[in-house]
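subagent[fold] <- orchestrator: predict structure for attached chain, return tokens only, no commentary.
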Amino acid sequence: MSCHYSRFKAPHRRYLDSSLTIKKLYDSYVEWVEKEHSNEPCVTLSYYSDVFTKEFNICFAPPNSDTCTTCDSLNAAIKNDAENPEKVAEHQMNLQAHKAEANEAQNLMKMWKNNEDADVHAIAVDLQQMLPTPRLSAGRNLLLQTQNVDLQLVHL
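subagent[fold] -> orchestrator:
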């Protein structure tokens, strides 16, 4: 069963806020190493960058649409519990049920969209269109901020 969001072409890629850069993260890493592990050397910026982008498959420009957090969580759980077949089977069953529910919801939206009854109105809210705010560029807040504003306008 295919993913109900659009990142299925690069399912393992992770995205960070586009205001971040490898250099900013590297500087935070160097600061952390100097503070927490002062007697250990830091890796070079180029090595850090290679590991960050190639090994962890992380990018800074988000895709045009987001993935489903339930799908992400269940796929991560499947990967993390790979050595426990019972848990993997449970996660896969939950993922399949979740995707079936999402497909059912999409089919209902299509049905209501094509409804010709003038007394019936359907409203769909696209939570992918949420606006992230605020954008902070100081220290540890770079990776900790995840506040969103959901703007909803309804006109009947």
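orchestrator: received. Logging for downstream: Strands lie at 14-15, 58-59, 131-132, 148-149. The chain is about 45% helix and 5% strand.
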